[in-house]
Amino acid sequence: MRPPERSVELTQVTEWEDGRARKVQDSLAAEEPLEIRVGGVPLTVTMRTPGNDLELAAGFLLTEGIIESLDQIAGLHAKAPENGLRSNVVEVELKDSEFDPAELQRNFYAASSCGICGKASIEAIRVRGLRQLDSGLRIDPEMLCELPERLRAEQEVFSRTGGLHAAALFDGEGRLIALREDIGRHNAVDKIAGWALLEKKLPLSECVMLVSGRGGFEIVQKALAAGIPILASVSAPSSLAVKLARELGLTLVGFLRGRRFVVYSGESRCVGPPSADRTEA
Fold this sequence. Notes:
Blueprint: E1 8-17, E2 20-29, E3 32-38, E4 41-48, H1 53-63, E5 73-78, E6 89-94, H2 101-104, E7 108-110, H3 122-128, H4 141-153, H5 156-161, E8 165-171, E9 176-182, H6 185-198, E10 207-211, H7 217-225, E11 230-233, H8 239-248, E12 251-257, E13 260-265
Parallel strand pairs: 3-6, 4-7, 10-11, 11-12
Antiparallel strand pairs: 1-2, 3-4, 5-6, 8-9, 8-10, 12-13
């Protein structure tokens, strides 16, 4: 899989190993701001790895509840570069949407290490009207354990830089459907959601999403917005993420490493009933 243009930058560094120093060329994950404008009005700026910017913008609008379907997007394009400079702006035109840029403009800055921090509680999600998931998808636990290795094998930019998060979409048989990388884990998820939106594949009710890092509240929220019934991560979820997953019927898996994982919500989709001979806190 060829990495998106501008996603990797080269630099000269000094490497020290076993008592010797030498000059070498190193690959860095690119990080640049992306401004999303709606109707010509700046909505947000997020630090991201360039590539799949239209997917990122479309996915952000979907997972943040600004739109519900592709039909609400009248136009979506990257602003043309000016004076030889790179373009880091995506412009969106909406239709059939109650979004009022003058009223709801947030202009928040999303640091690359965390998600958008504008939501304070599950109550904000209830207001959005996200519905209970009713997918009948089931996945074999043995298959689930194989997904992290399949994800890592396809992370082209990570293999060169060691500095990116990833979100991958698999079907119920463990086949890779889509993978996106970004310096921000929430951006990687938005790129997946945006891809599905633009390809008219929503809801993703027969898919499993695996994310690198932790399964925080924002990641759970975005998975729910895309209709994903099973979300797994290689690290821990947060307490609020678990509460939201349990309330809306999302299967939430954490610590997916080797042949072990922990199910925090919706265990029926990936494991049988737990044994009753031991209970641990």
